[in-house]
Design brief:
Helix content: under 10%
Structural class: mainly beta
Number of helices: 0
Strand order of the largest sheet: 6-5-4-3-2-1-10-9-8-7
Distance between the termini: 28 Å
Length: 146
């Protein structure tokens, strides 16, 4: 059964020679479990610059896959102390994107929880920066209590 949840995302990107970039976002999402794996699904908005894109986060035994479909398609895989290569589609072409995950903490279950990932990101084998992703999932409130 899919549950309506509130998803809070805090992300930071540190690139050499540039000021750090921070993104804080709160959005509605769906949380569900299938075959022992938890999924978070939400629609990107104009705020993220990826309007028309659906993001699915799949969590399974220490591995997290972030999949985007629609206008901006990509798939990033995160697993502690591992390096993974994927593709990232943009309006001007496809790039090879590599993640190297230094830490991954996941407590998400049927009642929500948090996901914290520290990783580096490479584009076409060039280091882009160090990243921190922090997601918190909480049950959506139904009505306002008296």
């Amino acid at each position: 059964m899919k549950k309506d949840v509130l998803l809070s995302i805090a992300a930071a990107q540190y690139m050499e020679g540039f000021e750090p970039e921070f993104v804080n976002l709160m959005t509605q999402a769906k949380l569900y479990e299938r075959n022992g794996k938890y999924y978070i699904v939400y629609e990107e908005s104009e705020l993220t610059g990826m309007e028309g894109t659906r993001t699915t986060v799949k969590m399974d035994n220490g591995t997290v896959i972030l999949m985007r479909t629609g206008a901006f398609r990509s798939e990033l895989l995160f697993a502690k102390d591992q390096r993974h290569v994927g593709l990232y589609e943009t309006g001007v072409g496809t790039m090879v994107i590599t993640t190297h995950t230094s830490s991954l903490e996941n407590t998400i279950g049927e009642d929500g929880g948090k996901l914290v990932i520290e990783y580096t990101l490479e584009i076409d084998n060039s280091l882009l920066g160090h990243n921190h992703l922090h997601m918190v999932v909480t049950p959506a409130q139904v009505g306002i209590p008296d």
